[in-house]
Design goal:
Length: 183
């Protein structure tokens, strides 16, 4: 609430209109998160992970301090930089900050392919879940930033309760079934 609108009986109607206007706003349905910019301690290690292991394309280097990477030729889905973090240790697991970056794969078989690639590289996973609406694999990048690799199930398969409300959950991922979908 703006500072100039303090509660006083004479401001009641103005405050009610202000609150209604603020509560009525909805972000446009077509809005998307365009990119994530991560602070990293070692640019090359991060490029090795995101480009070398996960398969992103390096679109541009910004000197020796930043890189912009993408899938499919977009200018960048992920920015990596060492501007304030070169050589720094990872943030504490319990510190405020980004929980994970979620990377959406177009099809289930694409998620299976990257899972097999991670298994072949013996890259440690931190989890694998079926959320009802999606299937996800979890891991950390070299700076211990959480990474979720997932695909969305078709909307008609999303779990709904008796009122038609979405009921997401976290269950063990059928890893064998997922890997078989790549064959």
């Amino acid at each position: 609430m703006p500072k100039f609108l303090t509660f006083q009986p004479s401001n009641l109607k103005i405050l009610q209109l202000y609150n209604k206007k603020m509560n009525d706003y909805k972000i446009p349905a077509q809005t998307r998160i365009g990119h994530v910019h991560l602070k990293v301690s070692d640019l090359q290690k991060s490029l090795d992970f995101y480009c070398g292991l996960l398969g992103f394309d390096k679109m541009m280097l910004y000197g020796d301090q930043a890189a912009f990477i993408s899938a499919g030729g977009y200018h960048h889905h992920i920015g990596l930089n060492t501007w304030h973090s070169k050589g720094a240790p990872p943030a504490s697991e319990y510190a405020p900050g980004l929980y994970h970056t979620a990377i959406l794969y177009p099809e289930r078989k694409d998620l299976a392919v990257i899972l097999q690639r991670l298994i072949d590289a013996k890259y440690p996973l931190t989890g694998a879940s079926d959320h009802g609406v999606s299937e996800a694999i979890y891991l950390n990048d070299p700076d211990q930033n959480g990474v979720e690799l997932y695909w969305d199930k078709p909307k008609d398969q999303w779990p709904l309760d008796e009122n038609g409300d979405l009921t997401m959950f976290t269950r063990a991922l059928d890893v064998k079934g997922l890997l078989n979908s790549a064959k």
